[in-house]
Amino acid sequence: MPNFHRRLERNAIGFVLAIIGVASIGGMVEIAPLFTIHETVEKAPDMRVYTPLELAGRNIYIREGCYACHSQMIRTLRDEVERYGPYSRAVESQYDHPMLWGSKRTGPDLARIGSKYSDAWHVAHLINPRDVVPESIMPRYGWLQRNPLRTDDLSQHLAAQRSVGVPYTEDMIANASADAFGQANPDSPGARGVKQRYGKATNVRLFDGNTQRLTEMDALVAYLQILGRLTDVAHQKSAAAED
Amino acid sequence: MVATLNTNERQLALLVSILVTIAGFVLAAAGSDDPMGAQGFVVVLFGLACTLAVIRGFFEPEPGTERLSQYYDEPTKAGIVIAMAWAVVGMLVGVWVAALLAWPELTFVDQAWASFGRIRPVHTSGVIFGFGGNALIATSFHVLQRTARARLPDQFSPWFVLLGYNLFCIVAASGYLMGITQSKEYAEPEWYADIWLVIVWVVYFLIYIRTLRRRKEPHIYVANWYYMAFILVVAVLHIVNNLAVPVSWGHAKSYSLFSGVQDAMTQWWYGHNAVAFFLTAGFLGMMYYYLPKRAERPIFSYRLSIISFWGITFTYMWAGSHHLHFTALPHWVQTLGMTFSVVLLVPSWASAGNALATLNGAWHRVRDDATLRFMMVAAVFYGLSTFEGSFMAIRPVNSLSHYTDWTVGHVHAGALGWVAMITFGSFYALVPWMWKQERMYSPKLVEVHFWCALSGAVIYVFAMWNSGIIQGLMWRTYNDSGTLAFSFIDSLVKMHPYYIARAVGGLFFLIGATVGAYNIAMTIRAARLQERAGTPDIDIPEVRPTSGAALQPGE
How would you label B208-220 residue by residue, b for 16+ Cβ within 10 Å and e otherwise? Predict the structure, then answer.
């Protein structure tokens, strides 16, 4: 071996190719099969895509770096399942480009936070976390309530999502901006279209409690309220396991 | 800097600076109703500054041909200064975010740009890419020339790499404050910054390969293997993990090509190997040159160097999935990741052992010379944190440590103890050589820096061990009736004293780095004063290792 290596280290291009070759093996063995083995992601026929408002909220979640302190991945451990709910399935983040599983819990896991608290609780908590949880060390996010939500480009967002594989229909893309407004204004004419396109169970509410305008708060709360609720598969499976 | 370029290179530099400025305007125009517009103006400012600098030096006399018989060290000097500036800024932001976790209302309450989520990546990118990356570029140019006994191929491309890379860092950091991020840890910058980095990186690789092709040494020295692995593999990782589709050419926002479980695996394949090839391989390259030089001892074992190099290059790439134990990632991938993480201990300890055994016969120097002691402690921390890493990758251990501060402590054992210490040690060796001084401005301050850095790192790591293990245990504690004993907020309250201790540890480390920056600045100033006074350069030859180990594998 030393003789072979002595020859190798006299050849710059050979060395470069050797490094690339040796370094590629691990990734190819571990990553490539994840795209081809179908069992990797289980089937969930009831899985729906994010509405434009929820997607906008997700982008705010990313923008503010929430993922740095909150995971969205409940592990297959007894205490986690008891604390947060049924453990996370691969299919639940099937439409997450990128995934937000996280790596650190400075705050609690959020994979099943949806519908756990009221909209008003979320709004109050985001404006000043210490108003509802005195010991919290989370920053205040008051600007979400002050900033109007940008909706004119939501069609472009949905189209980009479709190009990476999320099954948005033409209808959804064309109506993205109107749907965003409709979802946060249940009495507006756009509200019905949201349920039509995204299912009856879609939350159509005054998320930030304000009818006047669509804010970033509306979007983020709409997103938080759908976390863990896009499909029922995890709940069904854990119920089946208990029987 | 411009004075060392020849006329052709000055024209090229001017052209590229103007192109960068134009690219900035294009970005600003395309993203006029998006945060990308502001990013465009950052690029414009950077491009204009470069353009002005080139114009100012454009008509200075050309450098003589005697330059070709000397190594080209101007970019290395600039890189050292820039790296130290990033160190102070990045660590300052680190202390800031640490303090916010202890006292959330400490600064700029309810200001978007200064919220924890936005400034945390400024800290991580600032120290990893700003400080670490510039240190790697600066030292790689120096090591490459010395070990190949060949001058850099031209005078323009090293500047393109150094300044282009810093443009990437500045665009990234300013973007985070505006909320531009891909949310992929350590790969936060958006698509336009990623594309720019690829261009810079290709030029960086070409410098390396062109210089190696002109080398006067038959063998390529170990340090260069590591620098090359760093350049090549980081390129592969960067390109694959950043594949994304922008919302439009006028949007900073993009959506990653992969989703869910595939995205998670790709991200941690990237994330773990950013640690491996950015924060380990590159800095091992540094260690393999500066440690034997400073100790004046040849590398202990050539065979061990080969084994550890290929071991690290092969094994690390399998280990990423240990970040995803007990998740929705298929079990077989988790098991592979765990297995290879444990195997990884062998090449890691081979490297650390090789470094420490090199010091045999030079331990009296380690005692007397804080510079060498920096490198020794770095090798020790490298050994300890790689052991800790393999340990934490074991599934049952990971069930406790994952998601807690233990991980943060582990990362900082590596980042403060290994990466920063080996860099400071190398810089203290390199600065007097580069500026032709007998020694640093103040060896006493090097000693002060050493003890600040060591105590800061130890306080930090102990604080995080305590908080991480307490957190992990509290989350899984049951009471007699079989229900969870603690709410999440109970565990958070218990973290408070450790978060204060962590901020204090970080502050010590920051003070050390600031002292170091001052010491380096004063050394440069002394060199300038000498030059102005017209004293002829005292030509300090670089200390040659006894058997020429730095030039050839130690056989």
Answer: beebbeebebebb
Q: Which of A68, A73, A96 is closest, CB to CB, to B120?
A: A68
Name the nearest CA neighbour of B487 among A73, A71, A108, A86: A108
What mean pLDDT do residues B482-494 have?
96
Compute the nearest-CA separation of A192 from chain B (Å). 27
- Rounded Cα distance, B211 and B208, in Å: 5
**Can you say whether the dihedral through the CA atoms of B368, B369, B374, B379 is positive or negative?**
negative
pLDDT at B552 over 70: no
**Using the beta-carbon criterion (under 8 Å), do B181 and A99 form an inter-chain contact?**
no
Token code pair at residue B239:
């390109």
Cα B61–chain centre separation: 36
pLDDT at B535: 62
> Whole-angstrom Cα distance, residue B380 to residue B352?
7
Cis peptide before A98 (omega within 30 of 0): yes
- CA of A114: how far to CAs of A82, A105, A221, B35, B388, in Å? 16, 18, 9, 30, 36
**B47, B26 in Cβ contact below 8 A?**
no
When the pLDDT of each residue in chain A is averaged and rounded to a whole number, the result is 94
pLDDT on residue A38 = 87
Q: What is the ipTM of this complex?
A: 0.95
User: Given an 8 Å threshold on Cβ–Cβ distance, is A77 in contact with B232?
Assistant: no
Alpha carbons B198 and B47: distance in angstroms, whole number:
18
Give one word for B479, left, alpha or beta, with left for phi > 0 and alpha for psi -120 to 50.
beta
B259–A96: do the CB atoms touch at under 8 Å?
yes
User: H/E element holding B33?
Assistant: none
Two tokens, residue B333: 């991938």
Residue B174 one-letter amino acid: S
Strand partners, B484: B478
How many pairs of residues across A and B have Cβ atoms under 8 Å apart?
Answer: 260
Closest Cβ–Cβ partner in A19, A80, A107 for B232: A19
Query: Cα(B488)–Cα(B116) distance, rounded to whole angstroms?
Result: 20
Q: What share of chain A is helix, strand, coil (3-state, %, to 5)?
A: 55, 0, 45
Comparing CA positions, the residue from B554, B551, B445 lying closest to residue B218 is B551
pLDDT, residue B65, reads 86
In DSSP terms, which residues pair with A148 in a beta bridge? Answer: A215
d(CA A142, CA A131): 13
Which residues in chain A have Cβ-Cβ distances shorter than 8 Å to B229? 19, 23
Mean of per-residue pLDDT scores for chain B: 95
